[in-house]
């Protein structure tokens, strides 16, 4: 049976270096790493170091419940959550709910009954009564009345910043467009920030919303284009980037030019690649910080360390694109 | 203790209907579903049906090892894999390797030692010797010489189709651009299909590749723009959509107009939303079928049912965009 020492001898390095390579520390030089990996391969060594750091038991499985991993905002969030969990020796179980209450209930039941170590939940439905106090939960974007801490971006400030940036770009008749869920979610504060800032600037504004989920996207925009103030609107703050992109697409079909006729700001900042045109002006969510904060709070709760606040609102910033 | 029968009585439906709602079958009418969920809520029923279908044990945990869930191709794949596993009572553990061989080895060690039921792996590195025959593995896009079945899109036909579509769009001096990995991967057949079709059409063609991972993307394109045949090239087949999008961005900076000067076709078909402009012409990968096939084969292997083929190549199709 090969041991760590033999690997270290063959590679001509110390035990600590072998351990760092196995545990994937960034502080190892690439040439050294190669030597160690070569020795591991030659000796066919199964690193028990790894096993010591991680044994897959229910107690180190964390479930991430989200609407859909296919959505770029959620896949970025999941990427950082997995990274942070891995650093701490936890593994991530992925549960896509499709946003359906019945599937969320189904997953909560499974997770409750099977005692995962904890749950990170992103849900916009009314499933309050199904939460079980036995398993630590951290919620993202959503408050439950029970003692579930919530991590979110600073949606309210984001709404105010978006309105102010529209104003700075010359907008005098702004509109907020979005969908509204039955239960309160932090994301609703985007609208509130928009309203308060518009009022502070002494502007007339429009709010146009329909219930989530939208049954017919096209009819949403047709309804919006049909409201009587519509021809006056010269700026749009959309509840998400996807919504902003869809608005731009539909507006163009109406002969409305962005940003000449209407300035547009989204929310999320999912456009980190060159495929997206036009590049949206947007309120960038601090996805990485949100992910790592959620994991840290969940592990705190698992370890029984008290959590100071109900809500952790991470600052956002405006990112200038080509639509304002 | 509330039981299923009481829920069925209160909701005024049969036992089977309650079970279908709990198990999230699509065949239940929305109004009926609501009635059942309401009854479940009123009675505070914890569905043991769910527990019976799923008990979280090592034997129903499947690991998905992929470079990054943040990549839209992989997040779409993960979405369907999770959906298919959930139907069969399995849960998905998500492992992002970052494409690094050391992290892939680390995950394989963890998974080997902890005996998950199976592994779905997407890896483009040389980690052959670390595979363990004890745990069923299905590979996506990559062949291992050991008996690991591989599920992939029909990359070779995709390459031929792409070349033919470029030709139909008027291209007479085509180029293939991409990166090349050290170990053989099915994705290399995209280039081979391109070459064979160009030859069959009697065309002169260019292949420009650099080793994966690219250290400097900008220098890749500058090198490509500097090759002597470059001014003759009137069509580009890029190894992925992301690569095609980057080419378009860099080409525009050189004053090259797409599709007027150069027609472009990508591979993947990740652009299923309105944020992307220009809409790429592309070879669409059958992501959903690839995902469900991989899961089905993995479960077959777990159950000891022999798998007929080494490789499952799922047909692709051309999707017309605005770049040809």
UniProtKB/TrEMBL annotation, chains A, B:
SUPFAM superfamilies: lambda repressor-like DNA-binding domains, Periplasmic binding protein-like I. This is LacI family DNA-binding transcriptional regulator. InterPro entries: HTH_LacI, Lambda_DNA-bd_dom_sf, Peripla_BP/Lac1_sug-bd_dom, Peripla_BP_I. Residues 2-56 form the HTH lacI-type domain. It comes from Paenibacillus terricola. PROSITE patterns: HTH_LACI_2. GO terms for molecular function: DNA binding. Keywords: DNA-binding, Repressor, Transcription, Transcription regulation. CDD domains: HTH_LacI (cd01392), PBP1_Qymf-like (cd06291).
């Amino acid at each position: 049976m090969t041991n760590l020492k033999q690997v270290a001898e063959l590679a001509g390095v110390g035990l600590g270096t072998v351990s760092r390579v196995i545990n994937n520390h960034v502080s190892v030089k690439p040439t050294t790493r190669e030597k160690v990996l070569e020795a591991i391969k030659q000796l066919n060594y199964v690193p028990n170091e790894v096993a010591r750091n991680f044994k897959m038991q229910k107690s180190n499985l964390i479930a991430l419940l989200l609407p859909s991993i296919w959505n770029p905002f959620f896949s970025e969030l999941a990427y950082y959550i997995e990274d942070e969990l891995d650093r701490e020796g936890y593994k991530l179980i992925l549960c896509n709910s499709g946003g359906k209450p019945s599937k969320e209930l189904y997953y909560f039941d499974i997770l409750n009954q099977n005692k995962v170590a904890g749950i990170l939940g992103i849900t916009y439905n009314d499933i309050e009564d199904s939460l079980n106090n036995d398993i630590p939960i951290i919620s993202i974007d959503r408050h439950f009345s029970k003692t579930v801490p919530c991590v979110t971006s600073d949606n309210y400030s984001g709404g105010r910043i978006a309105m102010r940036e529209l104003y700075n770009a010359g907008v005098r008749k702004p509109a907020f467009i979005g969908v509204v869920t039955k239960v309160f979610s932090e994301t609703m504060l985007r609208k509130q920030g928009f309203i308060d800032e518009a009022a502070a600037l002494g502007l007339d504004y429009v709010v146009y919303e329909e219930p989530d989920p939208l049954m017919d996207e096209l009819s949403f925009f047709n309804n919006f284009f049909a409201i009587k103030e519509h021809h006056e609107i010269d700026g749009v703050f959309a509840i998400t980037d996807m919504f902003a992109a869809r608005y731009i697409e539909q507006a163009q079909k109406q002969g409305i030019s962005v940003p000449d006729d209407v300035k547009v700001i989204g929310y999320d900042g999912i456009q980190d690649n060159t495929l997206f045109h036009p590049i949206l002006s947007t309120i960038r969510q601090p996805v990485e910080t949100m992910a790592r904060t959620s994991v840290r709070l969940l592990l705190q709760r698992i370890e029984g360390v008290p959590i100071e606040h109900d809500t952790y609102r991470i600052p956002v910033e405006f990112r200038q694109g080509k639509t304002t």
